[in-house]
Amino acid sequence: MKITLGFSPCPNDTFIFDALVNNKIDTRGFKFDVQLEDVQTLNEMAKATRLDVSKISYGVWPLVKANYNLLNSGGALGKGVGPLLICKMTDDRFKMTEDATIAIPGENTTAHMLFSLAYPNIKNKKFLVFNEIENAVLSGDVDAGVIIHENRFTYADKGLHKIIDLGNYWEETTKSPIPLGGIVAKKSLGINVANKIDALIKQSIEYAFKNYPALPDYVTERSQEMSEDVMRKHIDLYVNNYSINLGEAGKKAVEKLEEVFNNR
Question: How far apart are CA 6 and CA 41, in angstroms?
Fold first, then answer.
């Protein structure tokens, strides 16, 4: 059975899916047609129900849950893993005003929801691909930006400064881990197929961890602008026990984010 599968080229996703899509494990008759896209593109594709199985931001989950089931494996949740709000000035010189322009990595991303929770009165937002945000801040095109993924590890080297850790804000406000991204499967596949794919993703992660800290070519070839040290930091931060199994704590965190979405 052929399954269209979407995830990002970021190290955490390629690490998770390497064994699955490169036949390092028994895929039980499933063949995967892979599409690598940034998270906001994946969100838009999920809203259009274009893929059978896809990584999404939890920020878009309320908009796609009518057509998709949420899987237990493959996602990104945790503590200390949230997006950062950064600027060119040190935090004691930067003043957040209501007319500030903020770069956001996609309208339907969890990063956008967390920013809106912390700064509900900021309306001037510029939605960019996540890896364009540092340069937008450096050029002065925006006053500040919300960064995710590997940019957490590179912004300081570029002379940028953290204003607030939006993940910490979420944790302190809700007492929940941060739900960043999850894996969804079309309801039309049926729950039996979804459960089989879920189990395969879990097996793929377990295979990856068994061979870690070695990095497969599938990870390094898609992250050539990063050092291997940054790739490992990325994996260590975003791939954890919640990636193997969402669990009750993870499910409650997703429900809490959905509650925030519904009360905006």
Answer: 10
